[in-house]
């Protein structure tokens, strides 16, 4: 027999053996052939079981796994999830057939080896499952806050003399994509029983500020204070509250500090009250009125510490607690005071109120020449005084009510002045600010039963002169007219009378 013929014959015998093995397996299943000793599906010994019996075992295990909550653990923070929520589905439903085939399929050598291995140790078949990664991603995104722990930076307390180190706490952040990969891997590789817990993948966020770093905060870089003693109770409360929220802030090298973010939300729940504030050229009652004095006070301390100003806006109208061009307005999310720590060491902001004075002191590591002094000078380039506005109201003549005082308009420039050993080194423009004028607003009563009085008060209003209006209001009030019309109870005698 030729070599070629022998190869063809061998191939035909091998193919026949494969089909014969398949037929034998099907026959075994039909003839209640049982699984060899030492075979497990999950933790259940299926030795001696038929295919149908083993399938029942596998299905019962799958049902148990699919109905048991899965505990997901992220560094001690746990959340339970039902398998259906993440789309868990049983994948290897032919596991019982695989158990029955063990030792019966393959060539003679493989079958012999499998049967010999079973005599030495048991074989465990696991159930594998598919995970819907999109559903798992949605679940992790929804529960992320329950897993995450925000880091608490190391900090300092300050008693006015000494700083004390306060140890923080490391944070934990769930890594969603890596956790999806880990959960998917575990179920695809297969499990033998319901999982009590799966450890998720996380990142540890170490607290900022070592003892060495924070120990560099020892020098006073600058300070500033403003007075709010003329403020109403609500405004006083707001100044004190916002100052306390900034107090103790540590700003690291290169970091940007935002006053708005630090004192927000500006709401009653966060300790703020109603008080006067600027809005569209008028003074209105607003929750948090007065916080701009806090940001302006801090601004003056910051520029004297020569930290980098990132964002600063003047008020729409002039304020009285600092010089023009030395204010820093806070309004919604579009006006903020931000500065960057442009030094090589952390800085500490001390803020406090006392006797209706708002104070800010900035501490850090002083590297400037002690003979170098800086100051700031405001120069007014132009000034505008608007005409008053008079509103005629249905009140008796004589009623004059001032709703709002005048705010002059200004264009100003702020100069930064540097001297060394008392000698001028530079005087440079630091900022330019424009403040809009705002008219004084008066309500003037024009109601009277005397037509001539109504005419007279309107003519006085037309002059735009508040003093003339006040004089006319006093002269043409009903009381004044009636008094003039009453007869004199004690008239002077005529010269001709005896």
Characterise this structure.
Helix 2 (51-66) packs antiparallel against helix 3 (95-101). Helix content is 32%, strand content 30%. The strands form ten sheets. A four-stranded antiparallel sheet has the order 13-21-20-14. By secondary structure, it is of the alpha+beta class. The protein is built from 13 helices and 27 strands. Residues 1-30 have low confidence and may be disordered.
Global structural class: alpha+beta
Q: What is the CA-based Rg, rounded?
A: 43 Å
- Compute the separation of the termini in Å: 179 Å
Largest sheet: 4 strands, antiparallel
Strand arrangement in the largest pleated sheet:
13-21-20-14
Instruction: Tell me what portion of residues adopts beta-strand conformation.
Output: 25-35%
Number of helices: 13
* Helix fraction bin: 25-40%
Could you give the count of β-strands?
27
Mean pLDDT: 90
- Any idea what the shape is? elongated
Q: Show unreliable segments.
A: 1-30
């Amino acid at each position: 027999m030729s070599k070629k013929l022998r190869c063809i014959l061998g191939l035909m015998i091998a193919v026949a053996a494969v089909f014969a093995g398949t037929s034998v397996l099907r026959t075994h299943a039909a003839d209640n052939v049982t699984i060899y000793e030492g075979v497990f599906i999950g933790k259940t010994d299926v030795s001696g079981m038929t295919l149908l019996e083993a399938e029942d075992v596998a299905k019962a295990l799958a049902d148990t796994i699919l109905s048991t909550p899965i505990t997901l653990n992220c560094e001690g923070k746990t959340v339970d999830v039902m398998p259906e929520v993440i789309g868990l589905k049983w994948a290897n439903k032919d596991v019982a057939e695989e158990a029955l085939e063990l030792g019966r399929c393959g060539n003679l050598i493989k079958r012999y080896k499998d049967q010999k291995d079973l005599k030495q140790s048991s074989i465990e078949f696991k159930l594998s499952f598919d995970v819907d990664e999109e559903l798992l991603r949605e679940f992790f995104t929804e529960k992320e806050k329950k897993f995450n722990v925000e880091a608490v930076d190391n900090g300092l307390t300050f008693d006015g003399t000494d700083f004390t180190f306060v140890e923080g706490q490391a944070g934990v952040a769930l890594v969603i994509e890596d956790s999806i990969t880990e959960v998917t891997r575990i179920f695809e590789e297969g499990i033998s029983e319901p999982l009590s817990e799966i450890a998720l993948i996380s990142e540890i966020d170490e607290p900022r500020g070592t003892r060495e770093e924070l120990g560099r905060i020892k020098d006073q870089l600058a300070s500033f204070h403003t007075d709010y003693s003329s403020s109403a109770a609500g405004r006083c409360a707001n100044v004190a509250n916002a100052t306390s929220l900034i107090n103790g802030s540590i700003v690291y090298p290169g970091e940007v500090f935002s006053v708005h973010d630090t004192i927000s939300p500006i709401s009653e729940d966060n300790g703020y009250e109603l008080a006067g504030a600027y809005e569209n050229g008028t003074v209105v009652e607003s929750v948090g009125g007065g916080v701009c004095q806090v940001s302006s006070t801090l601004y003056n301390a910051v520029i004297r510490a020569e930290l980098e100003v990132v964002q600063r806006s003047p008020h729409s109208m002039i304020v009285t607690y600092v010089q023009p061009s030395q204010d820093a307005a806070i309004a919604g999310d579009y006006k903020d005071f931000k500065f960057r720590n442009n030094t090589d060491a952390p800085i500490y902001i001390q803020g406090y109120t006392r006797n209706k004075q708002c104070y800010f002191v900035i501490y850090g590591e002083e590297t400037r020449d002690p003979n170098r002094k800086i100051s700031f000078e405001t120069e007014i380039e132009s000034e505008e005084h608007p005409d008053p506005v008079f509103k005629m109201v249905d009140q008796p003549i004589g009623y004059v009510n001032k709703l709002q005082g005048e705010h002059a308009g200004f264009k100003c420039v702020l100069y930064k002045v540097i001297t060394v050993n008392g000698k001028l080194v530079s005087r440079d423009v630091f900022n330019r600010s424009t403040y809009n004028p705002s008219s004084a607003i008066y309500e003037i009563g024009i109601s009277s039963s005397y037509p001539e009085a109504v005419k007279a008060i309107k003519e006085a209003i037309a002059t735009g002169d508040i003093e003339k209006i006040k004089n006319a209001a006093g002269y043409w009030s009903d009381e004044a007219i009636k008094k003039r019309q009453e007869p004199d109870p004690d008239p002077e005698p005529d010269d001709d009378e005896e």
